[in-house]
Amino acid sequence: MSQYTPNTPLPKVEDARVAIVSAEWNSHITDRLTEGALEVLHANGFSDADCDVYRVPGTVELTFAASQLIEAEQYDAIIIIGVVIRGDTPHFDYVCQSVTQGMTALNADCDIPTIFAVLTVENEQQALDRAGGCVGNKGAEAAEAAIKMIALNRRINNL
Length: 159
What we know:
single chain, two-stranded antiparallel ribbon, 6 strands, about 45% helix, about 20% strand, globular
């Protein structure tokens, strides 16, 4: 099991906006991840007005919503939140592959970082463990990554 331990304090970013796109499927888990992300953003100076939450039906729809939000040019980072739990069919593989490839393409082709907070787990307990349970909150970690990527993007753009 990997452990996330930040090695540097989070940078201070001002006048930044973050969009969180959260899947409704497995909402009892995605809501916890979204709350974790919002807690970190608020603790780091983001107001409610700086953080918008959008809901989509499922994990596959995350990429489309993130793409549209990037095109709107209103945000400094996008966090996508979803949960895919392995079942008895290959659906798990198709969904995981779709969202991973979509998010990778957005990060390669666009100027706004998209942060991946999609849990791909074997069972519901593993998801709960990562949504504020014994493994932490991956939504909170995604918000930390978003803050770091906003700072990095601004630093690069100021070269």
